[in-house]
Hints:
This protein is of the alpha+beta class. It has a domain at 4-34 and 81-154: 2-Layer Sandwich (Alpha-D-Glucose-1,6-Bisphosphate, Chain A, domain 4). The protein is 24% helix and 42% strand. The chain has helices at residues 15-22, 25-31, 133-154, and strands spanning 4-11, 37-45, 51-58, 72-83, 87-95, 105-114, 117-125. The protein has a seven-stranded antiparallel beta sheet with strand order 1-7-6-5-4-3-2. A hairpin with a 3-residue loop joins strand 4 and strand 5. The protein is globular, with a radius of gyration of 15 Å. It comes from Marinitenerispora sediminis. Residues 12-152 form the Activator of Hsp90 ATPase homologue 1/2-like C-terminal domain. This is ATPase. InterPro entries: ASHA1/2-like_C, START-like_dom_sf.
Amino acid sequence: MNRTDRARRVIAAPPTTVYAALLDRASLEAWLPPDGMRGRVEWWEPRPGGGFRMVLTYLDPAGSPGKTSDATDVVEVEFADLLRPERVVQRAVFEAEDPSYAGTMTLTWHLAAAGAGTEVTVTAVDVPPGIDQAVHESGLASSLANLAAHVEAAG
Length: 155
């Protein structure tokens, strides 16, 4: 597993605002699930070595079978590194019986000032082979769009 997927977006909010949305439970539930899904955080420890468990539910599971069940993806995430307001590194493991979803995927959320906003780049390395690359990159882009809408509306 050495595949890397990426998405990038400029968000009209300062890095400190975007960083805060990466580490706020209610914010994460609002913006992280890509289009067609909703998310619920079951536990939350926003500190290095802490993490969270999120249950992502497909709004219409037909044609989009989940990794954990037909309608869900469950992911355990560890916060590997938190560098305010520049970077959040997460290690994600999906609950799945299918070995093509096994392994630890590392996601790095890099924030860089871009004029009055923030360029956010999310890089996922060691993506499990069971995750379709085009679908994953589309999902990452959708999450970034949701993040932009979330922080820009609050601003």
